[in-house]
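Notes for week 9. Today we move from apo structures to complexes. The key idea is that a small molecule is not decoration. When we ask for a structure prediction with zinc ion present, the ligand SMILES becomes part of the input, just like the chain. The input block below holds both the sequence and the ligand string. Read it once before you look at the output, and try to guess where the molecule might sit.
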Amino acid sequence: MKCYNHHDRDAFGICTVCGKGLCLECMTGKKDVITCKDKKCINIFNLRRILLIFLYIVIIIALFVFIFD
Ligand SMILES: [Zn+2]
Ligand SMILES: [Zn+2]
């Protein structure tokens, strides 16, 4: 796969939001949480992360309520 922005460069990762291939210069984030430098993708990624954390908290509270009820 080639970089979405640089067609002459090999992609080192794939944006977890839009699925585009990215070279080292075009990617941002860490190993398994790569996104392109597109603001849309970064915003969606951050939103997803917040939702995921929120979901975890809800599950933990639900478990506590279930156990100590
Ligand atoms: Zn992207
Ligand atoms: Zn690139």
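Residues 39-68 form the longest helix (30 residues).
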